[in-house]
Amino acid sequence: MSSATVKTNHIYNGLYLVLADHFPAYRTKSNLFDVPGFAKAMGKSHETAYKALRRDSLTIVIALSIIEFSRSEPETLELVWVDLLPFVLPKYAELSVLSSDTESPSEVDDILG
Which of 17, 77, 102, 112 has the fewest CB atoms lying closer than 10 Å? Predict the structure, then answer.
């Protein structure tokens, strides 16, 4: 879990924690993640960043920008696709298997006889 300080009126979710953990240079004196500063450094509007945080999701284009940015910034923990995949494709794990693959062994045994 992140060591970033959280205020109740601040957007706080999984994406916030990932960004706060991977971009420690973008923390305020009170240890909050500096969303406007981060967005500006990436060349994005603060509203683009807040929109992603409010939704707890990313477009592929923004995710790619964040990954590339993580590789160009000093004092950053480099991101890879797997770090952001839950925010790009939130149901990826759930929908990566066929529903028939989730049947219990007893159901399979019943079908096979």
Answer: 112
